[in-house]
């Protein structure tokens, strides 16, 4: 019989390989397991991440905000066009080589209209780029236009008044029609008579505009409006009968067209969907999106990933939608002012009834992959916003993007009423536009969040459908005692597990209010599939209450229990904490006052220990930054003699950086082959990252002479930056965990900060045999 931990790991690998994570209407929110389906199906693998600030006009400040929201491609799939509302322009990328996208410059909308004009969506028809532009002076005076741009010359060849504030655009399969959702969105700071702030109705009402593309000359294209209210502003009976929240203010959000020329439109704030025949402009159906009750989700922003919460009767309020076929359509239920069900739904367009709903499984996918943002738990959770449907090689996929979790979940929707979860694709922050390019086997994801201060920039990510196991995820979690996945993130430390060669311990840091020790099953060296978090242990203070430590280092003691290196908000707050095997605090060792006095917010970052045959235990620690009282560029390595209760100190000389605002410090310490191995890193990420290295120094045989700080000679053992860049994603800043497992392999992990000022992606690395990676004996 297999050990329990191995069975758990195999079960999670089956889920991540796409066995089945889904929910039917009758049992929404339940996971349905399945057996081994044989060889792993083809998966999407990330090929490149292009930061769009690199495509800015000459002379523009690199820190200026620039985003990528909605994107489209030329008909050959080689030129990508994206909207940049923040910078009031559209951008062009050459994606002929999906591994090396190239910036082709931008087109400013100021040159075509007004400096405040914002592109909201984009599409391509033949040689033309269709850009819908919001030109509204205010919420009560909405306006917009359609600019038709030559893809070759980038000159505007036509413009059409849209008569209101536009949101999304869709093109019919035969390219005869374009449809634009004219939202005329509400003012979130205004209140209707007798209503709440941001509530409905707020005139003028939105509608849909259809553009006839038949004429070869875009200047002669004709447009017509499809009203969603009566001429006098009263409600259409069809919307009233469908139970639309406020039918006099429909606010259409997103549009999609099937092969029969049926246009589906979400009314997000009104929790509904309408269907329109494009040829006639006739509204053929309206239905409400309904409500969902959820169990097993995180509903409290308390710094704890606690998936025991519930929501009752929450409106779906769908944002993006897409036709799976000519009958079934899917919605991403982001929510708005009343709702948001943290999932997505398949509707039968003939009846308006729910054919399938994700229940709590979409949020569980986020938790399993370390992408659940606790800071959004009281609001709309993962906020599934984007959705796209496409067939690749005869297999139909649904892509559902999480605005707050920074990922896209991929499903096989060959059977529309029984979607099968396939994989997660990591993105940069705020994935907005999901663009399948089936002709080239690609998926492009454009991101709307851009934070130059944090070094996390908006980007276009490219993924290609291929064979084999993708690089992400490298770490997932098994189900916990409640049946929900073990929630995790902010892993800044690693330790070997005594007596279990293929297991590691890691610990959460101050990103969460309750400190937990997690057990990781590595699978024993290179493996097909990710490592698996199989258990969690809550750390407790001396009174037995859950502890709130900023644990930056962990060492599992062969004699039982743990050492934690706890970083303080000030120097005096730094301490070594000894736990028993149950995670209860048994000893606290403060940092000596003379050392603490010279430290700011960056203190303890790592801990390890040696124990000789007589049980004499020596604890080694690393500080992150130099003390103000020490020589410039020299950071302290602490030696704590447990039996004597005394400290002594050695020095480590840091590398230097010439980048403004950057600094270099230590992130981890471990023992290998008679040497100390340390992680040295800069504060940079993305394309700016430069220093993510492992150095070794001799392991001193005894304490340093009192009052001295001998600098130990360091040797570069391994540059981890190539491995971090090999993921083709946003190069992570915080390489923080490092250890040598009992199986002889060196493992490293990045800290995702609980998705705060981070893409949220965790990279767990097996760097190979310690003899090769770290040297020594």
UniProtKB/TrEMBL annotation:
Q: Gene3D superfamilies, from UniProt? A: YVTN repeat-like/Quinoprotein amine dehydrogenase
User: The Phytase-like domain covers which part of the protein?
Assistant: 487-753
State one Pfam family annotation.
Phytase-like
Q: Which residues form the signal peptide?
A: 1-28
| Alphabetical UniProt keywords | Signal
Its name, as the record gives it, is Esterase-like activity of phytase family protein
Q: Which organism is it from?
A: Streptomyces nitrosporeus
